[in-house]
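Pipeline run #58 for the internal structure catalog. This entry was flagged by the ingest filter as a single-chain record with no existing model, so it goes straight to prediction. Upstream metadata was stripped on purpose; only the residue string is passed forward. Reviewer on rotation: M.T. Logging verbosity set to normal.
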Amino acid sequence: GQLGRGNKDTSTGPVPVQFPPHVKIVAIAAGFAHCLAISGDTMIADLTLLTESLLDKGELFTWGWNSDGQLGLGNTDDCTTPTAIAVDNKVKLIACGRVNSLCYTGT
């Protein structure tokens, strides 16, 4: 499920992750077997250039292995597709560990 393709198949090469058509991803983080992504209005390659104006949306998406609730879904069910997570403020930064996740809103 960590590939975000809607199944638990493996792949020997890169595969695209599908997000809703209106979503542009500006940052992504990968843990042991889960991922986080932030949406924004402008796609950039250098995370040091992330500014609040680029993160007009700041939506958080998670998917993958969820053994310890690291996806923030309120359960421990694995999730095979990117799923929006309700966060009270715009997410500015994200990070993943083995079975943990962090999002920073700056508030």
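catalog note: Confidence is low (pLDDT under 50) at residues 50-55.
catalog note: The beta strands are 24-30, 34-40, 60-64, 79-85, 93-96, 101-104.
status: ready for reviewer M.T.
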